[in-house]
Specification:
Layout lengths: L1 H152 L12 H10 L14 H14 L5 E9 L4 E11 L2 E6 L4 E3 L12 E4 L3 E12 L3
Antiparallel strand pairs: 1-2, 1-6, 2-3, 3-4, 5-6
Helix pairs in contact: 1-3
């Protein structure tokens, strides 16, 4: 009886313990269930948020995917364009090198041409100055030519003549250039000198004649020569046109056949014949 009571007591204690444990477990499970339910709600809310984010991300992904496709297509085109530009750049670079070489050559040519231009400009200036000088000389010579032509073709009127003094004659002979002409046989002989001096004198309105002497020298060599004669204030004067030397015969007398006189440059001359080629007043 006593053992039975102990067993019942033990059983009761065990049951109480089990009930207590069961109650505790129930309470714990209920608490955990509440916590899990709360976590479930939180997870559901988080899932909704993630679902919404996912949809947004999916939309962004599609947009980015389209953008990636566009960018990829653009990259392909740009890559092709880049290759074309590289080829064109290489061609342009080669052309640039050619142009650089051409520029260098042209620059050298320009420098050479500029130097030539400077030299030519200097020569042009010199030639222009020489041209002006020659033009003035030409004008002067042309005027002299016209005057000589008139002197050659027109006789000197007696009313127009002037009679110089010996001093004036000497001064004029000093500047006249007839004696500077080169003697050139047979093109320009003594007679040409005499005629030239006579024509020049007509420009001064002086009547200088041309005369000639035929005879012989002191050594009995034949002598034939043309020179000039003019009546000055002091009387008759003879002129050697090749040297501008002047002299007079006797008291300014005219040389005659059979006379002897001293001719400048030739010495003593015996005259066989005295010839007046063009008369002198």
């Amino acid at each position: 009886m006593k053992r039975r009571s102990v067993s019942i007591a033990l059983t009761y204690i065990v049951l109480c313990f089990l009930l207590m444990v069961s109650g505790y477990l129930y309470f714990d499970l209920n608490k955990r269930h509440a916590n899990l339910q709360s976590d479930h709600i939180s997870l559901v809310n988080a899932c909704d948020i993630l679902q919404s984010d996912y949809q947004g991300l999916e939309l962004d992904y599609r947009t980015l995917n389209n953008t990636h496709y566009i960018l990829n297509s653009s990259h392909t085109r740009l890559n092709q364009t880049h290759k074309i530009l590289i080829l064109e750049y290489n061609e342009l670079n080669a052309s640039y090198e050619v142009l650089t070489n051409n520029h260098t050559e042209l620059e050298q040519d320009y420098s050479e041409l500029y130097n030539n231009y400077t030299a030519l400009e200097h020569n042009h200036t010199g030639l222009s100055n020489e041209f002006l000088i020659l033009q003035n000389q030409y004008t002067s010579l042309f005027n002299d030519y016209d005057a000589l032509l008139e002197a050659f073709n027109e006789p000197l009127p007696t009313t127009y003549e002037e009679v110089p003094s010996i001093h004036e004659l000497e001064q004029w002979l000093a500047i006249d250039e007839t004696d500077e002409i080169r003697y050139d046989e047979p093109d320009f002989l003594c007679g040409d000198f005499a005629v030239m001096l006579s024509l020049h004198a007509k420009l001064e309105r002086w009547d200088i004649g041309v005369v000639g002497v035929v005879g012989y020298t002191e050594s009995l060599e034949s002598f034939a020569h043309a020179f000039n004669a003019i009546i000055c204030d002091e009387g008759l004067i003879y002129i050697e046109p090749q040297s501008d030397e002047i002299w007079s015969y006797g008291d300014h007398e005219e040389i005659g056949d059979g006379d002897s006189y001293h001719h400048p440059g030739f010495g003593e001359i015996t005259v066989e014949e005295y010839i007046v080629v063009t008369w002198y007043s």
